[in-house]
UniProtKB/TrEMBL annotation:
Domain LD-carboxypeptidase C-terminal positions: 176-291
Protein name: Muramoyltetrapeptide carboxypeptidase
GO molecular function term, any single one: carboxypeptidase activity
Lineage, uppermost ranks: Bacteria, Bacillati, Actinomycetota, Actinomycetes, Propionibacteriales
Single GO biological process annotation from the record: proteolysis
Species the sequence originates in: Friedmanniella luteola
Protease found in the keyword field: yes
Active-site residue list: S108, E206, H276
Family assignment from sequence similarity: Belongs to the peptidase S66 family.
InterPro entries in UniProt: Carboxypeptidase_A_C_sf (IPR027461), Class_I_gatase-like (IPR029062), LdcA_N (IPR027478), Peptidase_S66_N (IPR040449), Peptidase_S66C (IPR040921), S66_fam (IPR003507)
Amino acid sequence: MSVPRLVPGDRVRFVSPASPPTREAVARGAELLSAWGLQVEVADHAFDRTGYLAGPDLARLADLDDALRDPGVRGIFATTGGKGAYRIAPLLDFEAARADPKPFVGFSDITYLHLALHRAGVPGSLHGPFVNWSDEYYDAGCAERLRRSLMEPEPVVVSSRPADYTAQLSSAGSATGVLVGGHFDSVSRAVGWALPDLDDAILLLEDHHGTGLGQVDRCLAQLVHSGLLRSVRGIALGTFGEFETTTASGTTLADVLGDWLAPLRVPILGGLPIGHGLNPASVPLGTAATIDVAAGTLTVAPAVH
């Protein structure tokens, strides 16, 4: 399923469902989207701060629900991730979201919201950069990929980079299924309440060094022992930032991932520039995807029409 593409003149809303952004970076994100002809609005509580959260749960929820319900808002962008999206994910107005689906962009902790929306049958999620925009992390090519994924109804093709750490985990074959997933730690912690059915899915996993090797091991155990991976079609591995030199008593991230994923006996494509890294790709979630290990590509049907 897809949602209407964004066109110049459309209103879009910036929301902060997790941690608070910085005003300067959000202003840069607004400048970027305004250059595409979009009318940028910032939610009422986007810059609130309650500890590590962007305001109280009900305020963050209200901002996101208001954007989902407003027929004049044609796209929603999370300012940043961090912590807290899991606190409001089950409470979203899914009925309103189903009635008027629209693109919703973010990653990291926002994965909880993408998963909950997908489980509720709401299309339009996009695993893409935050509008808490940093030119240090996101270059012009990254911005253009985001624009095209939202404004051009064409497949998204992401090429594996053989030099990237997770490329060594690639295995032979190809597979087609619905792309589901995102931030690995969030995916595993969503088992039992937000994680949708993974039968016939291509499971996307990416993470960053803060998770730690032991936690990666526990997260994989949670996913495998839940039984949810028994019928996945394939695995797409994005960036696992700063894990390249990490070991625990001689064990590496590649060892841990291989121990749990290889026995699934499905095609695995690693080395994808998706997630917590420089200039990440923008990838639709909840649409048909194909991994072709020989070609080194992940091809995803567009999120928009």
